[in-house]
Amino acid sequence: MTAITTNPPSRAGRAFRRLAHHPSLLIGSGIVLLMVLIAIFAPLIAPHDPYVQDISRRAVPPVWYEKGTWENILGTDQLGRDYLSRLIYGTRVSLLIGFSVVAISGLIGTTLGLLAGYFGGKVDTFVTFIVTVRLAMPVILVALAVVALFGGSMWVVITVLGLLKWDRFAVVVRSTTQQIRALDYIASARTAGASTAWILLREVLPNIAPQLIVIATIEVASAILMEAALSFLGLGVQPPLPSWGLMISEAKSYMFFSFWLIAIPGTALATLVFAINLAGDGLRDMITPERS
Amino acid sequence: MLKPLLSVRDLRVDLNTRSGVLHAVRGISFDVAPGETLCIVGESGCGKSMTSLALMDLLPRVARRSADEITFDGQDLTRRRIAGKLRGRRMAMIFQEPMTALNPAFTIGDQMVEAYLYHVGGTRAQAVDRAAQMLEKVGIGSARSRLGQYPHQLSGGLRQRVMIAMALMTDPELLIADEPTTALDVTIQAQILRLLKDLQQELGLAIILITHDLGLVSRIADRIVVMYAGAIVEEGTAAEIFDRPAHPYTRALIDCIPQPGKTERGAPLGTIPGVVPLLIGRQDGCAFRDRCSLAQPRCADDIPTQDAGSHHWVCIHGGQA
Amino acid sequence: MSYLLETVGLTRRFQVGQGMFKPKATLHALNGVDLRLKKGQVLGIVGESGCGKSTLAKILLGLLAPSEGSVLLDGKDIGTIGRMDFTRRVQPVFQDPFSSLNPRKTIADIVTMPLRVHGIGTDAERRKRAAGIMDMVGLPARFAERYPKELSGGQRQRVAIARALVMNPDLIICDEPTSALDASVQSQILNLLMDLKRELGLTYVFISHNLSVVEHLVDQVAVMYLGRVVELGSTAQVFDAPQHPYTRALLDSALTVAPSLGVPDIGLGTAFPNPLAIPPGCPFQPRCPRAFDLCSRVRPHPVDVALGGAACHLAEEPLRGAA
Ligand SMILES: Nc1ncnc2c1ncn2[C@@H]1O[C@H](COP(=O)(O)OP(=O)(O)OP(=O)(O)O)[C@@H](O)[C@H]1O
Ligand SMILES: Nc1ncnc2c1ncn2[C@@H]1O[C@H](COP(=O)(O)OP(=O)(O)O)[C@@H](O)[C@H]1O
Ligand code: SF4
Ligand code: SF4
Ligand SMILES: [Mg+2]
Ligand SMILES: [Mg+2]
What we know:
By secondary structure, chain A is an all-alpha fold.
């Protein structure tokens, strides 16, 4: 059609214009980006050392309370550590766990899905079988059992969740790969002599990237929540490392006296998860309509 | 000409798209006489399907239809209630891809019977008899057992026959067929067209057949309407269009197809340079002018309609070269 | 051996399921196909849907292995030619220009893909080669950075042709290259294919169900029915004097522009060919208007690839064929 004869705007320009059409993506990714920056520059931003205890200044409320001070904007916890600093360092733990888990699970799930979808037959039967086995195991119970066995630490949590949460990647990548495999551009690559690895990485993968991004956002949010849950149960990140889940857990006995101790990390957690999901939804909307 | 069965005057279809209003059909007018075959030809995207959907009031939701007149046997089809009563009963439609028009979850028998009961009434046994009879008519053997089959159990050719049988269940007077044989083999295409022609004679059916296949049109049409960019550019009988094509677009289109016996084997075929124009926004002057070998500056102005009896074309050139 | 391409007894079977509890059935998609093609010639393959045309194309392209028989390229079994060597010499053009281009690659990436796979040239050299080829197939240079969805069907098919030509192949396998295109675009692509053949000395296998197009373009024709070649000969022989009743029916059913002829009655009956239940005797017998008692019992001799002709009892004795 005639649109062909007009010069297309640059790639970056087009991407930006599309972004502007999706406010939820803009807001979501804005918040996530902000949190990532906070996590990276935590030592520069945090007003205090998050580990230093000050028995004399225990459970100081945030500034907006009558007894609050500007010294500890979000107050201190029951051991007298600055709550804002702990919150800022907690961002690191949440994001590190979220992204590391998805890096591992995404790699496993995508590889299995690609192989099953591309080769079909026995490979597919095998992958489908282990997906079924994996789905029969409740993630949180298995994670609890493993942590109970090996002891809790951030790396154990990452490894366990990473090795468990690949099923959604595998299922989606498998079915998408099956569809793409039947298309003539795959046949064209094969008749050009391309190896299987080439075809999977250069022809198939770019076409499932949109789906991967969307699943990844869902999985990051879910991994962050699971870490919080495990830490809350005392089986995740171990003190004194500040994790939002751990902060909520430590505060639970003071819930009725110092409500902010739970409300603050709780809000941070909810905001991050909400922002990630918002970004994921926006990405999906931006990518799915294949209108010309 | 007989009193027309269907009259269409200044039919327009506008679609709201993200880049603006797309005028898919731009004020077309034509008549169909009882028992006549009218073919609408044109390249893909010229508005053929939008025209047929507009007549059946089956347009997608983004589309708006307007017309000075659409009457069927004197009744006003722009009135929803009247159209609802006529559609599926006195006017029927066959689609290009039968799989999309048949419901995969029901047997073909159920689908044929339900439609019949809805439009005509009577007992279920009568409807089943009628369905079996129609399947036999379209050349499907052991019709009773076929009624229990699901669409996916049938081959493409059989499905298209089922579509025809289904469309003819209510004894319609007008059949609108949008590319009914494009997806089929030549042998099956010939059989299905033969069948349509025979049924037409037997039942006095009027047919609007929409296609881009000029060979097919030349064999089946009584009259032909050539569409380009949402508008009719030439109209005439099959002999007029193929023996004395007058519009440069029609002529170029005929030159594009290899004609055994006429075109020398291996010789270059005719081509039309450029691409079909985008249908968004207004079009002043002749829409074909940036691809036309006979274009002149005044082709950007209003173009007169040339008449030679029943043969009309929209071009500045009056003579039939 | 002066044939660029030769197939010897090509047979391909598929095991197909027939629902959950029934045993798998064997489908003969190709059955003893012998073909020969000289360099610089065009071999047309025609036949109804499901007769095995695409299966043949896939085997010729090395995308599918034959169950039996072999494909020879310049007299050498393609199994013994290295894969890289083979892929450099034989290239495809597929039917659907919408699924044959990777939607996430630019046109330049698509056209240079075979060069990158083979590690030929530097990036700049590849770009230059792509620009040359794009020019040759009539694609403006500014399309290089565009994506397939920005192109029309005809332009996409040109991209597919450019990708096929970028390695300087000898043989192009075209599987219905214009079936998805409008008549006006089809004629452009056909003219392009004919020009390229002349300029580059290419050899084509041209698969199509459009008989007018095949007649216009090819030198030799093979008519296929249910996995077999039932008639083989030069374009003039097959189109001007068809011998097999099926070829005649095909030619009769082709709706060429001829307002006075009307819709032909091809007399094939309503039986549909079923590749899962190929009848004994002549496979065409259930539909053949000229079948006689022998046809349901004795299978006609296959077409002799050297002589051409038809696999039909009537054609074996020319006198009876005239009756
Ligand atoms: N992978 C497969 N598994 C099972 N059957 C197959 C497979 N591929 C092809 N077939 C069958 O082999 C026969 C020949 O198929 P092929 O695709 O070669 O037909 P074709 O002549 O190209 O038809 P068309 O004109 O519709 O493209 C058909 O009956 C088809 O159903
Ligand atoms: N649902 C839709 N939304 C937007 N544009 C459409 C839609 N359906 C059709 N069109 C456009 O309307 C025009 C006419 O389409 P159509 O009648 O389907 O053409 P054809 O002659 O091939 O049947 C084309 O430009 C097409 O892109
Ligand atoms: S009006 Fe002009 S541009 Fe249009 S078809 Fe006639 S000569 Fe060509
Ligand atoms: S062998 Fe018999 S059935 Fe087969 S094509 Fe010839 S006449 Fe017809
Ligand atoms: Mg259409
Ligand atoms: Mg095919």
